[in-house]
Structure prediction request, 372 residues.
Amino acid sequence: MKSPGSILPQSPVGSSPAAPPVRDQQPPVELIDESPVQGAIRRLGEFAADMRDADQRTAWIIIALLSAMLVYSYWPGLLNAKSSWSNPQYSHGWLVPLCSVALLFWWRRRVEAVTPAARLAGLGLLAGSFLVRLACAHYSIVTIDMYTFVPAIVGVFLMAGGWPMLRWAWAPLAALIFMYPLPDEATRYLLGPLQTLATIVSSYALQTVGLDAYREGNQIILGDAHVLGVVDACSGLRMLTIFMWLSLMLVLVWNGEWWENLIIFASSIPIALIVNSTRITLTGVMYTINPVWAEKLFHDWAGYFMMPMALGLLFLEQALLSKLVVAEYTAPAVVLGNSGPTGPMQKRPETNPRSGGVFSVVPRPDSGREMG
Prediction:
């Protein structure tokens, strides 16, 4: 009695099975590894070549002219932002526009056709920004008036380049918000709770290591001789504002999944607070050993170690995320009926194709894959 037909197709003994049909197989992607200097030279050449195209040239001329008009219109607010950069809390402000321009240059793509809906949306962003400016001028709200520069410049890019341009340009443009100071009301509301939190955490940490320490308001009493005051400068707000921007830059240049980027950026807040509390705790320990060295550590040296420590924790978190979660680069072939396998095991390219990677491996121009 013959057995029912097997699901798997049979092949003669001693003969190799026929090659399975390949469905929608993509051409192989040839990748090149380039240094930042080589990448910058390549992108300059691509931009120069694009400028020979009338449509490309017109779009970028419109962006340049409208951006220049915005800068002129917002010049008083930009000068106010520049004056705040002398405050140590916002000393990173001058780096923000430079990094955003560098990312825009690195991620630039050819301008595609712009739909009427995109132009209307960009015009709406510009109009909305100016309406908010009028309201801020009426009620003398200086900080919010400065902030409206960000949606206005986003509107310029959307109106001139459409939705495809907005997809790669929105993140560097949105990062410009970090070049502005926090509103005075936000600073007042944040300083008190951050001071209290830093004092409580540091007091518990000092008690945990066996020191005689207790908290009185925003002061830590060490034994009977030393009083460690957690003043406004020790609240961690300065560390928080700078480190959040650095975390955002790391997220933008790292080829991570969206949820990994979200975790990295959100963790910048607890990491900044942990590093600040560690600084206060170490200073308290030093007070019990050598008060003179404690003063040096607290006021002069600790600031130089806080940022490297925080960045080290962030890179450690990034490494752990890459080890804990491994993406499935291959999928098993599915066998159904007598049609044979649907295709060979496909391997995903080594690099993430999203445009965010700054130092990533990029495809050759003749590989058939779009370059970011």
